[in-house]
C-alpha cells in the first residue's frame, strides 16, 4: 500500500512533544488493550447481529489516509449494505454536508437496520481500537479521510494530516456530522496546535456524553 504525498508546514521545535507523544502512545496501548478485552462480549455479539441482519461480512475495512499521507487499513463494523460504495455516486446530489468534500446523509438509504443503531451508538467504530493498538491511529486525533476525499483537500486542509488520526476529536464532541467541513478542519488544526495529555483526556471525557446522547451521529 503506497503513501500519498502531503505538503508539509514548518513548525518550531517543541521540547514537550517528545514526552507527550510517549505518554500518549502508552495511553493508547493501555486503553485499546483494555477496551478490546472488556468489550469483547459486545464485539462478538455485534458480529453475530450484523451477519443475521444483512448479507455480507460483519467487518468492513477501508483504505484511509493517516499522518503525513501514510495509507493504512481502517476497520469498522459494517453498517451499510455491501453495495454501498457503488451506490454513492447516485446520491452525491443529495449530499447534506456543507463544504462538498465529505458525504453525509441523515437518512442514508444504504444504511442497514442494525447499522443505524450501530452508528448512533458509535459501536461501528469499536474495531478501530485495533488500529490504535497497531499504531495506525490514536484514541484522540483528526478523523482519517479516504483518499478520494483527501484528493479534494486544499493545501490548508491537508495540514490536518500532520497529526496522527484518532477515533475521537474536537469536532466529534462538538456536533460531529452536524458541523460543516470547514469548521471540522478548523477544530482539527486547533487540536494540532494545543494538543497535550490534558487536552486528550478532556476530549475523551467529553466523548462519553457525546456518544450517549448521539449528538450529530448518523
Task: Write the SSE topology.
Blueprint: H1 16-38, H2 40-53, E1 59-65, E2 71-77, H3 84-87, H4 113-120, H5 128-134, E3 138-140, H6 147-150, H7 155-158, E4 166-168, H8 181-194, H9 197-212
Parallel strand pairs: 3-4
Antiparallel strand pairs: 1-2
Helix pairs in contact: 1-5
Average pLDDT: 88
Q: Tell me how many strands there are.
A: 4
Helix and strand element order: HHEEHHHEHHEHH
What strand line-up does the widest sheet have? 1-2
Radius of gyration: 17 Å
Oligomeric composition of the shown chains? single chain
Distance from N terminus to C terminus (CA atoms, Å) equals 30 Å
- Could you give a short account of the major beta sheet? 2 strands, antiparallel
Estimate percent helicity: 40-55%
Q: What would you note in describing this structure?
A:
- This protein is mostly helical and 218 residues long.
- Helix content is 43%, strand content 9%.
- The protein has a two-stranded antiparallel sheet with strand order 1-2.
- A hairpin with a 5-residue loop joins strand 1 and strand 2.
- The radius of gyration is 17 Å and the shape is globular.
- One of its GO terms (molecular function) is phosphotransferase activity, for other substituted phosphate groups.
- Keywords: Membrane, Transferase, Transmembrane, Transmembrane helix.
- Its main location: membrane.
- It is found in: Membrane.
Amino acid at each position: 500500500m503506497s503513501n500519498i504525498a502531503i505538503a508539509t508546514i514548518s513548525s518550531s521545535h517543541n521540547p514537550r512533544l517528545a514526552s507527550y507523544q510517549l505518554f500518549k502512545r502508552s495511553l493508547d496501548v493501555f486503553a485499546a488493550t483494555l477496551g478490546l478485552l472488556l468489550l469483547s462480549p459486545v464485539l462478538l455479539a455485534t458480529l453475530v447481529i450484523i451477519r443475521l441482519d444483512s448479507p455480507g461480512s460483519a467487518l468492513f475495512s477501508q483504505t484511509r489516509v493517516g499522518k503525513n499521507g501514510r495509507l493504512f487499513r481502517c476497520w469498522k463494523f459494517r453498517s451499510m449494505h455491501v453495495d454501498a460504495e457503488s451506490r454513492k455516486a447516485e446520491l452525491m446530489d443529495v449530499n447534506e454536508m456543507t463544504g462538498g468534500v465529505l458525504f453525509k446523509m441523515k437518512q442514508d438509504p444504504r444504511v442497514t437496520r442494525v447499522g443505524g443503531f450501530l452508528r448512533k451508538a458509535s459501536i461501528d467504530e469499536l474495531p478501530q481500537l485495533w488500529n490504535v493498538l497497531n499504531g495506525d491511529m490514536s484514541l484522540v486525533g483528526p478523523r482519517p479521510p479516504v483518499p478520494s476525499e483527501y484528493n479534494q483537500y486544499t493545501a490548508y486542509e491537508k495540514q490536518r494530516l500532520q497529526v496522527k488520526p484518532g477515533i475521537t476529536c474536537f469536532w466529534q464532541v462538538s456536533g460531529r456530522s452536524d458541523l460543516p467541513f470547514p469548521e471540522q478542519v478548523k477544530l482539527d488544526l486547533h487540536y494540532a496546535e494545543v494538543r497535550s495529555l490534558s487536552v486528550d483526556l478532556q476530549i475523551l471525557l467529553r466523548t462519553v456524553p457525546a456518544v450517549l446522547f448521539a449528538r450529530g451521529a448518523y
